[in-house]
Amino acid sequence: MLSGLTLFDLAWLTAAAVALDMLLGEPRRWHPLIGFGNLSSLLERALNRGRALKLRGMLAWLLAVAPLVALSAWLADAYGAAIHLALLYFSLGLRSLHDHNLPIARALLAWDISSARLLTARIVSRDTTELREEELAKASVESLLENGNDAVFGTLFWFAVAGGPGALMFRLANTLDAMWGYKTARFLRFGWMAARFDDLVNLPAARLTALSYVALAEDSRRALRCWRVQAPAWSSPNAGPVMASGAGALGVLLGGSATYDGVLEQRPVLGAGKPPAAHDIERAWKLVVRTTILWLALMAFAAIAAHLSGAHHA
Fold first, then answer.
1. Strand 253-260 versus strand 263-271 pairing type
2. Rounded to two decimals, what is the model's pTM?
3. PANTHER family under this entry (predicted)?
């Protein structure tokens, strides 16, 4: 482990950060990631112009990420567990997934389609003004499954590898991919670094997330089959395994048509069964929660096993 933390440290700090996130949620004011987003927007406006846009994008990425990760590493080295805990807490988004998606389910169950459309528009980039119930439920389930990896499990993976600075690096990279990683005229070259780096650091965590969804599925063979057969057709090398295995785990159909900026896109179909309904949003949330508990339990088991092994050798 690059963090210098013991397995016991990692286990209790992870459990404490998840508990803090679920208890407090995101800071209502002065959220660090919002400030980072504002800084990144300024860098993009200043550098995304003229020639050599790939190099300018790489420079912008480094200016946005490297100083903050270096500062966090210095603080963690100087002040120890408290900084690691704070960095992981600020990087996690488990409670946020609940707070942004469960109201969509409640609005749909109350037949309040207008509110459901407005709530869904806050979490996805597709057009929601004309979406029906099953399309709104599908958007929410897709967001829960994919962002379960991005906002929770990828963060936990990199915390295990490199402590608080690792968790921060992952979330900053993921945020820049969400801001700059689009294949549009504006970002195709400038955002190349952001998109590729996010793909790279997400590679192991996404597969562990997909494996966890398979392990916790109602029908694990179906979830594994969806992952193996359907994921390669998805445009993202990491979202494909996560969403395909998750859809198979829940027994719902995801993907298909969606409208982005007025353009209808036909995406590969993921999963098996029926299109999702309002209650499937809560089922997707519970799958993310069970996966979180599984990861916490595995970390605790590893810490106990390491302690017993050390005691035995002593």
1. antiparallel
2. 0.94
3. COBALAMIN BIOSYNTHESIS PROTEIN CBIB
How distant, in Å, are the alpha carbons of 3, 86, 181 from that of 176?
A: 23, 21, 7
pLDDT tops 90 at residue 179: yes
Nearest-angstrom CA–CA distance, 279 and 276? 8
Q: Which residue type, as a one-letter code, is found at position 78?
A: A
- Is residue 196 pLDDT above 90, yes or no? yes
Domain locations along the chain: 7-313
Which pLDDT belongs to residue 166? 97
User: Assign residue 50 a region: left if phi > 0, alpha if psi is -120 to 50, beta otherwise?
Assistant: left
With beta carbons less than 8 A apart as the criterion, state whether 11 and 306 touch. no
Give the Cα-Cα-Cα angle 255, 258, 259 (nearest 5 degrees). 160
In the block, which residue shows the tokens 């600020």? 90
- Residue reference for tokens 């969606």: 258
Residues 3 and 18: their CA atoms lie apart, in Å, by 19
Is the CB of residue 17 less than 8 Å from the CB of residue 92?
yes
**What does the pLDDT look like over 85-108, one tens digit per residue?**
999 999 999 999 999 999 999 999
| Cβ 203 vs Cβ 237: under 8 Å | yes
Please, which pLDDT band fits residue 2 given cuts at 50, 70 and 90?
low
Instruction: Say how far apart CA 36 and CA 176 lie, in whole Å.
Output: 9
For the chain, strand residue ranges (E) read 253-260, 263-271
pLDDT for position 230: 97
- For residue 252, give the 3-state DSSP assignment: strand
| Mean pLDDT, residues 273-299 taken together | 97
Which phi and psi angles does 107 have, rounded to 5°? -65, -40
